[in-house]
Design brief:
Elements lengths: L1 H45 L2 H17 L6 H24 L9 H32 L4
Helix pairs in contact: 1-4, 2-3, 2-4, 3-4
Length: 140
């Protein structure tokens, strides 16, 4: 009976570290996936920055040419929205710092989920600004 008890303790001691390591690996994968998702949103939105500058430039030209005085306010509003979206991306990039290794899992998850929300908002601002700019210019 004592041998059986020792065997169970031995097996338990072998399994516990493996289970703990498995949990850590699962949490690490989850953090990596979330970080990748945040960066995919960033990259997808960042690709639009050049186009936004092009839209802004075309709107500035329309204002300078004064093709339509009635549209001047709308063009200016579109320029402002494009600039705000660009500034929000620059601000997000300046403040974003990937979590350091060794930071507790819950803290990393909270940070990354917050950053995901922030970059999704930047993406939304970018999309809205582009739609407005496109609706007021001849760029398809």
């Amino acid at each position: 009976m004592r041998r059986y008890h020792l065997f169970r303790v031995f097996v338990f001691l072998l399994l516990v570290p493996g289970l703990f390591a498995g949990c850590q690996n699962s949490q690490q994968r989850e953090l990596e996936q979330l970080q990748s998702e945040v960066m995919r949103i960033h990259d997808r939105t960042m690709e639009k920055m050049g186009y936004m500058y092009e839209l802004e430039s075309n709107l500035q030209k329309l204002i300078a040419q004064k093709k339509n005085n009635a549209s001047g306010e709308r063009w200016q509003e579109a320029i402002q929205k494009l600039q705000e979206a660009q500034a929000s991306m620059m601000q997000w990039m300046h403040k974003y710092v990937p979590p350091k290794e060794g930071t507790p899992y819950a803290e990393q998850m909270t940070y990354l989920l917050g950053e995901k929300q922030k970059i999704m908002r930047v993406e939304q601002l970018t999309t809205e600004a582009i739609r407005l700019g496109e609706s007021l210019t001849e760029i398809p």
